[in-house]
Amino acid sequence: MPNWGGGAKCAACEKTVYHAEEMQCNGRSFHKTCFICMTCRKGLDSTTVAAHESEIYCKSCYGKKYGPKGYGYGQGAGVLSSDTGEHLGFDPQGLKPQKPTSNPTSGKFAQKFGGAERCSRCSKSVYAAERVMGAGKPWHKSCFRCALCGKSLESTTVTDKDGEIYCKVCYAKNFGPKGMGLGNLGTAE
């Protein structure tokens, strides 16, 4: 059927999309109001869209649907995918568990290619605008708190031990030197 109006057809509603209201993704045109996540219906733009075949998603829903599965990947503690990957040609007996990377460049790679580092406290994605580094790991500003007393920390008040962060008071009480004259009450006979 000829397209007399001159505009492309919207991939979502199939009505004519004129240039002033056009959004494009993977060579397809959308109305700005039709350029929404297939799952959560949130409005998208060129920085938040993630496409899979003919469907468009926000990055969060795309990650939940097509991203890695298992502990630490947004599925919650104790939930593992039973997908062995055999349909992709993987040998389930040949797979070995991998330790999380502590490579400092992994964050740059994740930011450039759409992913994000995980917060050391809550395991949710940490994006650059909300990231605080402590003990060599990323944290949300709201999660950057003492592991013992919950006090909010800053770069000048944080101390770390074994990958966990503490305020200076809790660190001194629990990991500092012990004995007479070092802040502990001792009895001399």
From TrEMBL:
<feature type="domain" description="LIM zinc-binding">
    <location>
        <begin position="8"/>
        <end position="68"/>
    </location>
</feature>
<keyword id="KW-0862">Zinc</keyword>
<keyword id="KW-0440">LIM domain</keyword>
<dbReference type="GO" id="GO:0060048">
    <property type="term" value="P:cardiac muscle contraction"/>
</dbReference>
<protein>
    <submittedName>
        <fullName>CSRP3 protein</fullName>
    </submittedName>
</protein>
<keyword id="KW-0479">Metal-binding</keyword>
<dbReference type="Pfam" id="PF00412">
    <property type="entry name" value="LIM"/>
</dbReference>
<dbReference type="GO" id="GO:0042805">
    <property type="term" value="F:actinin binding"/>
</dbReference>
<dbReference type="GO" id="GO:0060537">
    <property type="term" value="P:muscle tissue development"/>
</dbReference>
<keyword id="KW-0539">Nucleus</keyword>
<dbReference type="GO" id="GO:0030018">
    <property type="term" value="C:Z disc"/>
</dbReference>
<dbReference type="GO" id="GO:0008307">
    <property type="term" value="F:structural constituent of muscle"/>
</dbReference>
<dbReference type="GO" id="GO:0005634">
    <property type="term" value="C:nucleus"/>
</dbReference>
<keyword id="KW-0677">Repeat</keyword>
<feature type="domain" description="LIM zinc-binding">
    <location>
        <begin position="117"/>
        <end position="177"/>
    </location>
</feature>
<dbReference type="GO" id="GO:0046872">
    <property type="term" value="F:metal ion binding"/>
</dbReference>
<dbReference type="InterPro" id="IPR001781">
    <property type="entry name" value="Znf_LIM"/>
</dbReference>
<dbReference type="GO" id="GO:0045214">
    <property type="term" value="P:sarcomere organization"/>
</dbReference>
